[in-house]
Amino acid sequence: MTEDLIPERFSRRVLTHAIAATFVDGYPLVMAIQGPSGDGKSYQLARCLEGAEFRPLTLSGAALSGSHEGDSTSALRDLYARAQGFQVANDEWPVLILEDFDLSPAGQKEDSKYTVNSQLLTGFLMNLSEQVSIAGVGTRKRYPIFLTGNDFTILHKPLMRPGRMDIFTWIPTSDEQSLMILSVLRKRIPELRLEDAEKLQADFPDLPIAAFAAALNDCVANAIYKHVASDKPVQFTQIRQKIAVEAIAVPLSGLREALRRRGRFDFSPGCFIEEG
User: Fold this and answer.
1) Model confidence pLDDT, tens digit, residues 182-206
2) Peptide bond preceding 233 in cis form (omega within 30 of 0)
3) Beta strands at 165-169 and 145-149: parallel, antiparallel or unpaired
4) Can you identify the CATH homologous superfamily of domain 8-169?
5) Does the pLDDT value for residue 9 go beyond 80?
6) pLDDT confidence of residue 2
7) CB neighbour burial string for 102-121, b if at least 16 within 10 angstroms, e if fewer
8) Edge-to-edge, what's the strand order for the sheet holding 145-149?
């Protein structure tokens, strides 16, 4: 098991793509990772790449939006140029991550129009994937591109053609969820074992991994407040002197109560396109 306990199925798909997209001409430059919200796509992707000594450079779907024609393409072009500059200066191989790409201009709902920005962004990605040199980025080097999102059925279909994009649907099994839960919780619950994580997954099967992380943060925040609330009024200077956040441990019983509160929310999966 790696330090971040990333499921092997996830790391294998990600690293296979990163290596092949870097070195194999004609291999799809873009991988789209889709799946329910909160199941660790972005976190695991960055940790997996960093562990293999790639350097993730990230841009959100919202950052790709723009009010003027070409703004989206300019933002992605700038990120590719930044990757090239980083690789030259640091001798590390960068990988581009476009988070929540279904929320970018490239994602079109039924009630929205296919705008100039969305056409240009989609066309630019298609050019990059087919042949970097024709995309006008000033280099022939191939920097792998990963898209994360919940629903890629709304992307322009030509972009998802085999040879341009590889599609990976991440819906973790119960065993994979248990491994991820252990990874998320063990910093604050150091005595937690894999069998404890498996019991938590079985008791809260409908909660995404993000809910376990959020519940853990709830417990830490509550512990901080209880620690400083004996001082009235609560003042930041005293808090800063009293608190040692890194040393805070969370009891498993407290986490379970926080998870029960989190379980009242609805975490419904979206729909997905077929894997290529």
Assistant:
1) 999 998 998 999 999 999 999 999 8
2) yes
3) unpaired
4) P-loop containing nucleotide triphosphate hydrolases (3.40.50.300)
5) yes
6) 40
7) bbbbbbbeeeeeeeebbbbb
8) 54-60, 93-99, 145-149, 30-34, 165-169
Residue 264 confidence (pLDDT): 65
Enter the tokens of residue 108: 């079109």
Domain layout of the chain by residue ranges: 8-169, 174-262
* One-letter identity of residue 65: S
* Separation between Cα atoms, residue 228 and residue 181, nearest integer Å: 29
Helices vs. strands in the chain: H and E counts, helices first = 9, 5
Q: Mind listing the pLDDT tens digit for each residue in 52-88?
A: 999 999 988 878 776 655 678 888 888 998 999 999 8
Given a cut of 80, whether residue 97 has pLDDT beyond it is yes
Where in the chain does DSSP place strands (E)? Answer: 30-34, 54-60, 93-99, 145-149, 165-169
